[in-house]
TrEMBL record:
Keyword field: Signal
Biological classification of the source: Eukaryota, Sar, Stramenopiles, Ochrophyta, Bolidophyceae
Parts of the chain that traverse the membrane: none
InterPro entries: Ester_Hydrolysis_Enzymes, SGNH_hydro, SGNH_hydro_sf
Domain SGNH hydrolase-type esterase: 103-285
Name of this chain's protein: SGNH hydrolase-type esterase domain-containing protein
GO molecular function list: phosphatidylcholine lysophospholipase activity
PANTHER family: SGNH-HYDROLASE, THIOESTERASE 1/PROTEASE 1/LYSOPHOSPHOLIPASE L1
Organism superkingdom: Eukaryota
Signal peptide range in chain numbering: 1-25
């Protein structure tokens, strides 16, 4: 009899977990994603890319984060929660008004909102960003740690962050993505091809918007890879893209003055603006926004 009740309770528990995990939101979009794994349940923390150049995710194929691109089940849950928040925030904005500038990207973009995977941080970055765009309707959709393939998924139909209604006008889009592809060991060509795929997707979804593509910001020990990826990005965009797509070179303001006129592969990061050699601080965000506004003639 005891075994019978144990079996019943176990079945009810499994059913409850399924209902919680896959319960649809009020708007019918599932508040969860499938956790992708090619092994058992212990794949968290397995390197995304191996030393021989093989990677478990493709930079050009949309995918949510997988066990290979998060460190733990807790981080996966936080990514899902933050992505859902981004989608709902975007839907609310798109229903009500046009957007002057839409920012898409990773942690560099998320920091502009004062969060990292939804957790409060980065007050200086948020203050500089908000001050730069007083009087404008701007929206920043970033997720810390994301790579090109994750942003592709987020702006696809399933991710839902660019489900734009016909009444919504998005005037300009700023794309800043790709540094994390290099950070996990993807080649410069993989990272660049992912960036180009994001740009192609955005131009199809928002054909009337001006698109500004940030070259990958300078990044310490990865600078040679950054320079190679940026050269490929420039070549693809200049040869393939319509005139509404422009290259932004605002990253040059984060380079030490003594090497600014040398080849990009030789650049070193000015820690006054990128203290961790990756993310702009408050003054760095101000430089970046001033540069963008000048490029956009705003």
């Amino acid at each position: 009899m005891n075994q019978y009740f144990v079996g019943v309770i176990s079945c009810l528990f499994v059913l409850l977990i399924i209902l919680i995990t896959f319960a649809p939101a009020e708007n019918g979009i599932v508040e969860s994603v499938t956790v992708h794994s090619r092994g058992g349940g212990d794949d968290y923390g397995t390197p995304l890319c191996s030393k021989d150049g093989g990677c478990r995710e493709s930079s050009t194929e949309p995918t949510p984060r997988t066990v290979f691109s998060v460190r733990s089940p807790q981080q996966m849950a936080q990514w899902i929660k933050t992505q859902n928040h981004n989608r709902r925030k975007a839907e609310a904005v798109f229903r009500k008004s046009s957007v002057d500038v839409l920012f898409l990207g990773d942690s560099i973009t998320e920091y502009l909102t004062g969060t990292s995977l939804g957790q409060a941080c980065c007050d200086d970055q948020k203050r500089s960003f908000d001050k730069a765009w007083v009087g404008s309707n701007v929206l920043a959709l970033g997720l810390s740690g994301d790579q090109t393939q994750h942003l592709l998924w987020r702006i696809s139909g399933e991710g839902g962050e660019l489900n734009v209604g016909e009444a919504t006008t998005i005037k300009r889009v700023v794309i800043n993505i790709g540094t994390n592809n290099l950070g996990v060991g993807m080649t410069p060509s993989m990272a660049a091809d992912g960036v180009v795929k994001v740009v192609e997707t955005v131009t199809k979804l928002l054909p009337n918007a001006e698109v500004w593509v940030e070259q990958i910001f300078p990044r310490g020990r990865l600078q040679q890879s950054v320079a190679s990826a940026n050269a490929r990005i420039r070549n693809h965009i200049n040869s393939r893209m319509p005139s509404s797509v422009r290259i932004s070179t605002c990253g040059k303001y984060f380079v030490n003055a003594e090497v600014k006129h040398e080849s990009e592969a030789s650049w070193t990061v000015d820690r006054a603006y990128l203290p961790d050699e990756l993310h702009p601080n408050g003054p760095g965000v101000k430089l970046w926004m001033d540069c963008l506004k000048s490029d956009m003639n705003i």
